[in-house]
Amino acid sequence: MNAFNEIKFNAPTVIFVLLLLFGLPFLVGLLVQYNYIQDLERVSNERLTLYEMTLESELQKYEYLPYLISENGKVSTFLAKGGDQLPINKFLYRVNTIAGSSVVYIIGTNGIVRAASNWDMPKNFINLDLSFRPYFKDAMSGKEGKFFGVGITAGEPGFYTSHPIIHKGNIIGVAVAKIALSPLEHLWREGGETLFVSDSNGVIVLTSRPNWKYKTLTPLDAAILKRIHDREHYPGFQLKHLPSYSRTRLGSVEELTIGKERFLNNARGIPGTDWKISYLTPQGPLWERTLGISLTTFVLLGLGILTLLFFRERQQKKLSRQQAVEASNIRNMNRQLALEIEERKRTEHELRAAQEELVQAGKLAALGEMATAIAHELNQPIAAVKTYIASCRLMLKRDKLDDLDPTLKKVSDLGDRMAKVTGQLKSFARRSLDMNVEFDLRQAIKEAMNLMKHQFLVENCYLRLSMPGHPVLILGDRMRLEQVLINLFRNALDALQETESPFIGVKLSMENDMAVIRVWDNGPGIAEEVGKKIFEPFVTTKKEGIGVGLGLSISFKIIKDMKGNFLVANRAPHGAEFFVQIPLSKNQQKRES
Ligand code: ADP
């Protein structure tokens, strides 16, 4: 699949297919025709040789007869001295009968037949004047004569062969044998062959087609016709020409049309004569065969192309089906993906919500821890308020109104102090809604430390705080940042449980465009098993019920939300140090630059 499917049905392809469809059958036809003509040429050559040989042998068979007769002493004596004709006639009759020729006879020097084998037939040759016959003239000039012509008495065509009769060096007459060639023609006809023998003028003298006999292939001009007439070659026959013409030559054969028939003509001269023998092969089968093969090729090719088109169509349908299936698979996958994305978004949302909850939960836990501190923090002022109020009542009873006001002032101050404590609590507990507020990190640190003050005291922990004298402004959620710091302090305090002189250091500084908060302690440092996983959720070394391993992971998320970094390292000789880096706000950056 291929290359075939790649075929595009554009104009050049269509032209190529049409050329193939019509050109190939044509070429195949030509090839077949060429081969057929080659075969025909070979076969007709063989046939021609065969018929030529039979004709030659037929003619040669009687060639010796005139010679034998001329050698006969009685014949020459009869011609030289005269005498009784009958014995000579009888002698010629015997020779003719034994040889199987048509007729034998002798002619005197004046051209008059002196004796003949048919002397006792009604149309005998005796006393016929044959001085005009070429074979007589040839023999009289000392040569052997050969001639095809029609007999003037019986009108029968025949081949005449003659020999001079010589007596004491002089030609005293001519011996002639006539051979009828009609049995040969009969044989040809019976063999179903089409052939003819034509003389030097193109007159057909022998043929398997009786109606072609004594016809010419081309019209003869008047001079030739007159000469033939004078010599009485074919007396009684009008030498009409056949409606024939020759066309192209194909190798050694030529195309010939006679009447409505078309032949391939293979012609050859017969040695020793001026005759030509022509073997004709009907051309019908050639054209039928060529046309048949061309049509078959055309049909097969057409079928081939149709089959190819059919398979191509099927392949394309299969392909588009496959593509449709693939497209549907992709659609399904997309749907699946969309669902998964939706699912992930939902999960993320849930996670965020869970984180919020956890932050809140973390705060509540710290709140719980702070409850004691708050109680402690509030108990003392409440006790003081009670005492002051009791004093006030006593003053009222004793009418010492002047002392009342300062005491009530102290009560009011204590109320303010308590309001501050509860205010802090409120701000810690609430969820932050505003994530991007510019605030001073120093205040956040102070606030976080304030909230943890009680724990630091209880744990007897030494604190060191170092901060710049100017505001360090960042953009973010102050409450959440405080949560991070509280978490760091809480962890440090937990880690310092076994440390003799617990110490927590806090340093705020500005480095480049970042605010950096360092929180360190002199505890045992980060345990090896925690290592790099420290910011992952639920990683804890604390006892069950004390830690759940969420503090740092939530803190990490909070700092990342503020586009900051959260790092940890162990300190030498011992202790852990946390680094919180948060980008300074634009205002702060401008101020610095
Ligand atoms: P939790 O406090 O519930 O264990 P955290 O995420 O806050 O969860 O802390 C994870 C762990 O990190 C702690 O269990 C502890 O092992 C380690 N860790 C945190 N801070 C310190 C520190 N200052 N010194 C030593 N280890 C610490």
List the helices and strands and how they pair.
Elements: H1 3-6, H2 11-61, H3 64-71, H4 73-81, H5 85-99, E1 103-108, E2 113-116, H6 134-140, E3 145-150, E4 157-167, E5 170-179, H7 182-190, E6 194-198, E7 204-207, H8 222-230, E8 244-250, E9 253-258, E10 261-269, E11 276-282, H9 284-397, H10 401-429, E12 437-440, H11 441-458, E13 462-466, E14 473-476, H12 478-495, E15 503-511, E16 514-521, H13 551-561, E17 565-570, E18 576-583, H14 586-592
The structure holds adenosine-5'-diphosphate.
Adenosine-5'-diphosphate is lined by residues 487, 491-492, 495, 521, 523, 525-527, 530, 534, 539-542, 547-553, 576.
- Helix percentage: 40-55%
* Bound chemical compounds: adenosine-5'-diphosphate
Please, what is the average pLDDT? Answer: 84
Strand order of the largest sheet: 7-6-11-10-9-8
The SS-based structural class is: alpha+beta
The major sheet is characterized as: 6 strands, antiparallel
Query: What is the general shape?
Result: rod-shaped
Low-confidence stretches: 427-431
**Count of runs of 4 or more consecutive helical residues:** 14
Radius of gyration, Cα only, in angstroms?
Answer: 71 Å
Question: Beta-strand level of the residues, as a percent range?
Answer: 15-25%
DSSP E strands, number: 18
Cα distance spanning the termini: 70 Å
